Amino acid sequence: MSDEVVLFDEIQTAGGRRFGVATLNTPASLNALSVAMVRLLTPKLRAWAQDAGVAGVLLQAAGEKAFCAGGDLRQLYQTLLECGPERNPYAERFFAEEYELDYLIHTFPKPILCWGHGIVMGGGIGLMAGASHRVVTAQSRLAMPEISIGLYPDVGGSWFLRRMPGRVGLFLALTGVSLNAADAIFCGLADLLVPHDSKAQVLDEIAAGAWTGEAKADRAALSRILLRAGEGTELPPSKVREHFDTINALMAGDDLGDIAKRLRALQSDDPWLQTAAKTFAKGAPSSAALSFELWQRVHRMSLAEVFRLEYWASLGFCAHKDFAEGIRAVLIDKDRNPKWNPATLDDITPAFIEDHLKVRGEMAPELAGLV
∠122-125-130 over CA atoms, to 5°? Predict the structure, then answer.
């Protein structure tokens, strides 16, 4: 296997056009998204978008465990320790380039098939969410677990969580709960379930296809291929669908304190709901407060506006202490015992929230021009 962090290939199709293939290739780290990966993916996707001979793109990953388990935060962690509240040039690049790639996928002019097999979390969902064709398998497990590392659901999460049914998106942000394939489809994070064993069939049909180069027709043709591959496959039971009314009741109203009280008081025989409530209770109060603030702010924002707001929010989290502490507790020391500051929601002030969202220097040029 090549040591390149992203592998690029092309499928030659019967009609003469090609399908680009990008493979995340760091299975030992569960294909965690690194700056090096982003800097390979963005120019290649731009080239494929401009190439009239390319009909579409497949985004996939090496290994059987994960499509992408999130962003690679270890190098960022070192800069958080070094820079503290001062300007952090690495963080500016890290978030600007990742969000530029996510936006490119959301607005890509040709079909993008994302094969979301295995673990898909955080930055992995950022890659998957904007694809035109998002496949999950029976082994897929999705989550936005940022509340446990002192961050918030970024990578456009403020935008797509707000567009989920009812108040499900807010629940996911506050609890980091795990989703299966049926949950992901119900929430709008995936389009259909295809058995992982059927992937070879999908690739064969892509190769046999007479792609036209007309995006609308090619999207429809790709959908037909995936529908055939998934035909007759039963969805697992969806916990989100089962508990939809409970979730909406828990998340009701416009006061985070009220929501927090209901989550802490939640009694349920369902381990999935119990885990959700426990994760919220152990999570960073700053993450909960900012996730809720963003939920309220982004309702009528465009995707580009949301990415620019998230850029400032992410730099704000880098300038405060909880993000570094969360990475330490989960990824570095792995003691799972973070010391959050502020320690409770009651300790969080409006000024604290605004300091996370304020402008810090210049807007990254990659994001300034998004429309």
Answer: 140
